[in-house]
Amino acid sequence: MLGNFSYHNPTKLYFGDESLNYLKDELKNYGPVVMLNYGSGSVKKNGIYDQVVAILRECGKQIVENPGVMSNPTLEKLNEGVEIARRNSIDLILSLGGGSVCDYSKAVAASVFYEGDYWDRFWLKQQQPEPGQRLLPVGCILTMAGTGSEMNAGTVITDAKNTFKVGHVFDDRLMPRFSILNPKFTMTVPAEQMKAGIYDIMNHIMEQYFSDFDDNTSDYLSEGLMRSLITASRIAVKNPQDYEARSNIMWTATWALNTLIGLGKKEDWMVHMIGHSIGAWTHAPHGYCLASVSMAYYRRAMKPGLPKFVRFAKNVWDIRPDGLTDEQIAQAGLEALKDWMLEIGLPLTISQLGATAQMIPGITQGTIVYPAGYMDLKPEDITEILKESL
Ligand code: NZQ
Ligand code: ZN
User: pLDDT truncated to tens, each residue of the chain (390 aa)?
Assistant: First the structure.
C-alpha cells in the first residue's frame, strides 16, 4: 500500500431477507416528512412498495411521493424532484429502487438547499457543496444489485437535451445514512437488467484493479470479489431464483464500489466514461454500455499494463502459465473474460445496443477523457476503440 489515504464510510447497512424489519428503527432518527422516490412501477408490481408504505404509516410518517424516476435519471426529472422537496419541508429522502433512484435521491438531497445553479456547480464543474451547506439525509432500500450507489456518494445524471451523461462523486456527506439490502427484492429484476448489473459490478472492480503495479491489499480484495461474482453469476443466470447466488451478487456489488478497493490506487474509469456517452446516445442499460467496449479497451490496455493482466489471468481466471509467454498468459485471461461475458449473455459490440458508425463522433465528443489506468488516451483513441467495438 504505497498510497496515502483516509477512509470513512458513514453508511449503515442492513443485509438479508429480514433486513426491511430494521427500517422502523432507522425512521425514528428523522422528522415526520419522508420524500419517497421510486421508479416506473416495478415496486408496485412486486409488492415492495406496499411493504414500505405500511411501515412508513405505522411510524406516523407523512409521505411525499415522487414516482417515475427513470432508469438513467434525467436533469429534467432532477429539477422536478428539487421543486417537490423545496415545497414540502422534507426530513428524509427514501430511495426505493435500483441505482438510478438512489443516485437521483442523493442528487436531490444535494441540490434542494443550493441557491445557485446546482447542475453547473456539482455536475459540470464537479465541485462539492460548501462546508456549511444544508443537505438532506438519504436512506436507500435497494431493489437491484449493480451500481454500489447504496454505499457511495456517486450520482449519475443525464442531460437528455444535450445527449450528455455525467457522474459526480460527492463527498461523504451525501452517502446514504442507511441502506437496506434484501436479496429477495432483486429476484424480480428482468434478466437483461440482472446481467447488466453483474457486468457493472465486474467492471467497477476492473476499473480500480487495472491501475498501478505495487503489491497492494486492495488488489487481493478485488480478486476475491471477482471470483465470488464469477461463481455467483454463473449460478444466477441459470437459476435467477437462487437466493445464495443473488445474495452474493448483491453483497459483491456493494463492496465493488464503496471506496474500499480503490484505496491507495490511481484507478482508471475510462470504460465508464465511454460507457456513459454510449448510454446517452443509446439509452441502453449501463452495464451493457460498459460490456460493449470492454474487449477493445482492455486489449489496448494489456500492453502497457502487462504484469497486471498476467496476474488477472492467473488469479482470477486460473490460467496455467506453463510454457506460455507473458503476452500469451494475459491474452488467455482476456479470452476467459470474453467467454464468461458470452456465457452470461452480455453484448460485446455497440451495434447490439443500437449505436451506429454515424454516432461515433458524437459519442467521442461526449466522452470525458483523462489520463488514467495504464493509458493516456486522446479523443482519437476513443474513436478507434468505438470503431473496433462496432
Ligand atoms: O423503474 P423501475 O420500476 O424501478 O424499474 C427498474 C429499471 O427499469 C428495474 N428494476 C429495478 N429493481 C427491480 C426492477 N424491476 C423489477 N424488479 C426489481 N426488483 O430495473 C431497471 C434498471 O434499474 P436502474 O436503477 O436504472 O439500474 P441500475 O441499478 O443499474 O442503475 C443505473 C444507474 O446508476 C448509474 C448508471 O449510470 C445509471 O444511471 N451508476 C451509478 C453509480 C454510482 N452511484 O456509483 C456507478 C455506476 O457506474 C453507474 O454509473
Ligand atoms: Zn458502473
Answer: 888 999 999 999 999 999 999 999 999 999 999 999 999 999 999 999 999 999 999 999 999 999 999 999 999 999 999 999 999 999 999 999 999 999 999 999 999 999 999 999 999 999 999 999 999 999 999 999 999 999 999 999 999 999 999 999 999 999 999 999 999 999 999 999 999 999 999 999 999 999 999 999 999 999 999 999 999 999 999 999 999 999 999 999 999 999 999 999 999 999 999 999 999 999 999 999 999 999 999 999 999 999 999 999 999 999 999 999 999 999 999 999 999 999 999 999 999 999 999 999 999 999 999 988 999 999 999 999 999 999
Is residue 1 classed as helix, strand or coil in its secondary structure?
Answer: coil
Q: Which atom of ligand 1 has the smallest separation from the CA of 38?
A: 4
Contacts with 115 (C-beta within 8 Å, 6 or more apart), sequence order: none
* Residue range(s) defining the domain that contains residue 220: 191-388
Q: If you take atom 33 of ligand 1, which residue's CA is the nearest one?
A: 100
Whole-angstrom distance, CA of residue 104 vs CA of residue 102: 5
Ligand 1 test: best mutation among 100, 105, 204, 271, most atoms within 8 Å of CB? 100
Q: Which of 127, 152, 186 is the last residue of a domain?
A: 186
What DSSP designation does 375 have?
B
Residue 383 lies in a domain: yes
If one counts the domains in the chain, the total is: 2
Please give the number of the atom of ligand 1 that sits closest to the Cα of 185. Answer: 19
Q: In the chain, count of helices (H) and strands (E)? A: 15, 8
Q: pTM above 0.70?
A: yes
SS3 179: strand
